[in-house]
Amino acid sequence: MRYSHVYVEKGARAYPLTDAILSKLQGSVVIDIDHYKDVFDRPRQDIVFQKENPCLILAVRTGARIYKGAPVCQSFGQRYFYYASSVMNCPFDCAYCYLKGMYPSSYIVVFVNFDDYASEVRSHLAEGPMYVCASYDTDLIALDHLTGLAGRWCDIAEENEDLLVELRTKAAPQDLRAVPNVIYAFTVSPEEVAGRYESGAPRPSDRIRAAARALDAGCRVRLCFDPMIKIPNWQECYERFVEEVAGSIDLTRITDVSVGTFRISGEYLNSMRRRSPGNEIAWYPYTVKGGVAQYTEEDDRNMQEHMCSLLGRYIGREKIFTWN
Ligand code: SF4
User: What is the CATH number of the domain that holds 78?
Assistant: First the structure.
């Protein structure tokens, strides 16, 4: 991806990661700024235009860096569930992405002070084991060629056996490092969904091949059929897709599977509708329950049950996690 401009927070200049990233973006215009929020938090930004004309912001994260997991996220039975935000925003442009409603800008912010994240993880680990979703508000693997941050999360996982890291991605990497306490979570969708709603992301067949390569390299692999989207003929589409996945990956070797239907906080949905009025996913008449916009209870149940029964042909029910 080409970034026309790179905004560099003045405090970020002293960090080696800033130099490393800038050295890879020699064609970009570099602009010094006082604070990343001066650019990122400006009012009335056009997030659709920004997605088409991406810029990067390099900044230092102060305050909390690791958070307790949110209820709409799956914990996979892990008691100590956290997520970390070392990058905000993503190079891909999924129509259903909650980041469209969460952030005022589509520009990607990379926090260059990763050592502070590692220290915070170590402090939490002093209190007990930790499960950290490190790639929630971004796609660290898709950005790894630029930031190296997915690799840094693998490093701290290697150093701390009580730490379990999930790196979720829609990328299709050639090589992944096998670390016993790192789970590579590949989000996969039928072509009918990906082609229409996952702009910029690799084709599902490429992601499936990447997941198969990761398994062959000895990595722990999770497959995420999440979010399922209620497209016309969703039953047949998802059935065909599960057969395609099962034909390419030995599903008995994967760590587990996540299944979930589209859901988003009602607040983010309203903001998404305001900011990207042409987004058909945003305008579906969802039901709002407990502040979360989702399909009706019946649709939600039917879709998740259908997917669980399709996957149940290949893997044990104990390895299939649903979001509610
Ligand atoms: S890959 Fe994930 S984070 Fe990136 S745009 Fe799509 S849904 Fe959002």
Answer: 3.80.30.30
